[in-house]
Amino acid sequence: MPRIARKLRWLIAMAAALLLSACAAMGPRLTAPELSLAGVELVRGDLFEQRLKVRLRVNNPNDLAIGVKSVTYVIELGGEELGHGISSSSFQVPARGEAEFDMLVTANLASALLRLVDGARASGRVPNEVDYRVRGQVRLERGVVKAVPFDQRGTLRLR
């Protein structure tokens, strides 16, 4: 009986390995989508708290359309964290295409702005643009891969 049990275990292990390798071969290899800041608009705010409407652009470099379930994100402006959270609005990004979506961010700009002003004073010039960073994960609606991380940097022109 132990000999049959060993053979049965070996057969199950081989079947599982074949099944896993077949699933891996069938699942597409996704490249992380590129996110960039398309715009920021102040909805309302005071000195201590601001509500911002942030528009993000998602660029899909893959040959397959991506169904986005949600986006978790951290937004930094000038090296300072501006806000973070989860966007639960689902949308589709076409293959080799792009889509834009809005999300509301609650932030406290006072400390970030004070540090930006201190940096401008130290350098002796007022910047025309400020660096930004958007990082997090895109959660997909379906597929073998459930989350794709992203980390994008860029500059935002100041008016």
Descriptive key words:
alpha+beta; Immunoglobulin-like; 5-stranded antiparallel sheet; 3-stranded antiparallel sheet; 8 strands; 25% helix; elongated
Q: What does the model show?
A:
By secondary structure, this protein is of the alpha+beta class. The chain has a single domain (31-157), classed as Sandwich (Immunoglobulin-like). It has 2 helices and 8 strands; from the N terminus they run αββββββαββ. It has helices at 2-26, 109-123, and strands at 34-45, 50-59, 66-77, 80-87, 91-93, 98-107, 129-140, 147-157. Strands 3, 4, 5, 7 and 8 form a 5-stranded antiparallel beta sheet that branches. A hairpin with a 4-residue loop joins β1 and β2. It is elongated. It starts with a helix and ends with a strand. 13% of the residues are buried. Residues 18-26 have low confidence and may be disordered.
